[in-house]
Design a protein that fits this description.
alpha/beta; TIM Barrel; eight-stranded parallel barrel; 8 strands
């Protein structure tokens, strides 16, 4: 199921709110939802994550960074960046049956993630993005191609992706892709997600 359009919430950019965005994503058949909210307090995150988890029937519901929130709401898994808990610690606490994805920025990190038995990797940012200010320099399509040759676990491409460049991302070897600002800032979120879904089905 770790293929196709991968939806990540963004409270700052969203016009309609996280709940509405997630419902629209699910209505389009999206199978992976990641809850990310860097600005909310723990209580607010818990309550919102609990609500989102309740509507994510038939889809994988992941929490960004926060192991405590993932555990408390019974999420399907966790996505970790380089500054978050070490994978081995998170795996021990979360359990072997939950999903854990890791953000990587190089072939070396991708190979290490596979060695650790991460369920998938996120390559970020592929292109320049304003969605995540600390994302670092764009990695480009070349890195996706290089990593694809080295690992067999699913690759999710994130950062600066839109309908113009999404086909190239898929062709480079990404199993899934995430476009945030290209979707949640639009008047009709469902319509925009449907476009990405159709594009993925056509070119993957």
């Amino acid at each position: 199921m770790l293929k196709g359009y991968y939806f990540i919430t963004d409270s700052k950019l969203s016009r309609a709110g996280n709940t509405s965005d997630v419902k629209n994503a699910l209505a389009c058949g999206v199978k992976i939802i990641q809850y990310r909210n860097k600005d909310a307090g723990t209580r607010q995150m818990y309550e919102e994550a609990l609500k989102l988890k309740s509507i994510c029937k038939g889809a994988i519901f992941l929490i960004n960074d926060r192991l405590d929130i993932a555990l408390s709401v019974g999420a399907d898994g966790l996505h970790l960046g380089g500054d978050d808990l070490p994978y081995k610690v998170a795996r021990k606490l979360l359990g072997k049956n939950k999903i854990i994805g890791l953000t990587v920025h190089s072939v070396k990190e991708a190979r290490q993630a596979q060695k650790l038995k991460a369920d998938y990797i996120g390559i970020a940012p592929v292109f320049a993005t304003r969605t995540k200010l600390d994302a670092g320099k764009p990695k480009g399509l070349k890195l996706i191609k290089e990593i694809r040759k080295q690992v067999s676990i699913p690759i999710i491409a994130i950062g600066g992706i839109n309908l113009t460049n999404a086909r190239e991302v898929i062709a480079a070897g990404a199993d899934g892709l995430c476009a945030i600002s290209a979707v949640v800032t639009k008047p009709d979120v469902k319509k925009e997600i449907a476009k990405f879904q159709a594009l993925y089905m056509k070119f993957s």
